[in-house]
Amino acid sequence: MEIVVRMSACAPVLVPAAVSTSSLPRRSVPLVRTLRWTRGGTRGRVQRTRCYREEGAGSGGASSSPEQQSGAGGKTPFVLDSEVTTSGNLYPPLQSHKKGHLQVSNLHSVYYEVFGNPNGRPVVFLHGGPGAGCSDRHARFFDPQHYRIVLFDQRGCGKSTPRGCLEENTTWDLVSDIEQLRQHLGVAKWLVMGGSWGVTLALAYAQSHPDSVAGLILRGVCLLRPQEIDWFYKQGANALYPMAWEELLSVLEPDERKDVLSAYYKRLTGDDTSIQQRAAQAWLRWEMGLSFFSKSPYLVAWNGKKYQNLLSPLVAGAETTESSQNKERGPQRAPAGQPPTPGPAPTSSSTTSQTQSSSQPSPSSSSASSSTSESSSSTSQNKGSYSSQVAQARLESHYFINGGFFDDDQLIQGVPKMRHIPGIIVQGRYDFVCPIANAFDLHRAWPEAYLRIVPNAGHSMYDEGILYELVRAADSFKNLKY
């Protein structure tokens, strides 16, 4: 048995022996350097390979012809370019050139905006939550000269109306909305990027409409299986963040704490607006507290009465003129093809739950919190509806308590429908919202995808290493013809 390690400009990606590149056809063009482990040790060589499996190879599952698998017109299949040059920074801010509401049902209207090149390759961004909404910043992961970038707020959130509405609001309603929007904009097929819940929705969409999807960029894999929901609201994450968990429980009565999800769902869907607001704030504070990988220089110390944030002596002693200058500069632009050099992490000295969470996000720094930073125009359009915080918490609890409206393991079982679609999976090693095991489970079912595990990164798409990989992935897909 051989294990192949596919080498690239950044972290290596493990490829199961079942898809050893030696079994792939020699006529494939792209070159990939491999290291092979044998009984005699390792040896390296350059080998021709492609990023999909031939019929009969691997661990089962449906397969299609090379022409179907290779994308439009049977051309050379997508292969992640290890030489792609990426600064690792977001593209500059830009204004949308088209916006509007699309009536997707008698009840719901979804808001969308289009950025970038009107004649460029189409890409659609699927935000997280459910219910977080989009911000202009999401468009900056894509080269505006190359891409026609579509952002939209899913049902019940952001500028879509009615905000916070749970009626006619399921995963399959959202899948239908994406397809309606694609047809409305005259798009034949598009690249799809999604993170967290956006991964869930992207997979559901790709499995329902594979002919509409040119490629997938997925960050922070969420399959919304029962064990993932239990990890976040029963046993798992609470062991890593006990103080934040205690704060989440503080909103509930003692007899409700055995079923946190049901108790919060009851509050968020009740009639008392003050109870709704308090529950929503605690719900989102717990979620955001786990979203960022901790780089805080603060030591959490009990002083006999309360917890305090104290600057670590190791950090304080290492303070130099050079580090002070770096603090002003922030992350440094990297040479072409290399990850950015990180600047010092932001610091915070707020509440206990925030101390555990690491550097604290600004309202626009995460898809999970983007709904809290809506413009006044958004508020006026949804006048009389739920606040953005309550809407997001309502939608999340609605989807979670219904298991995402999926059958058991549905998204894994449905992978054969979309295995021919090129994909890049970006996963933070220390993602405590969507643990790394989810990404491995998906990659085990879909070994044709490129899995990129980012060290020293958590859940947020704005963690430096993850941001770099997402921009790099979008830049790599510029070579895909569709």
TrEMBL record:
Low complexity composition-biased segments: 346-388
Annotated signal peptide: none
Keyword NAD on entry: no
Any one annotated GO CC term: cytoplasm
Example of a GO MF term: aminopeptidase activity
Residue segments, region Disordered: 43-79, 318-388
Family: Belongs to the peptidase S33 family.
UniProt key word Coiled coil: no
Known EC number: 3.4.11.5
Species annotation: Ceratodon purpureus
Primary localization: cytoplasm
Reactions accelerated catalytically: Release of N-terminal proline from a peptide
One GO process term, biological-process aspect: proteolysis
Locations listed in the record: Cytoplasm
Highest taxon listed in the record's lineage: Eukaryota
Name by which UniProt lists this protein: Proline iminopeptidase
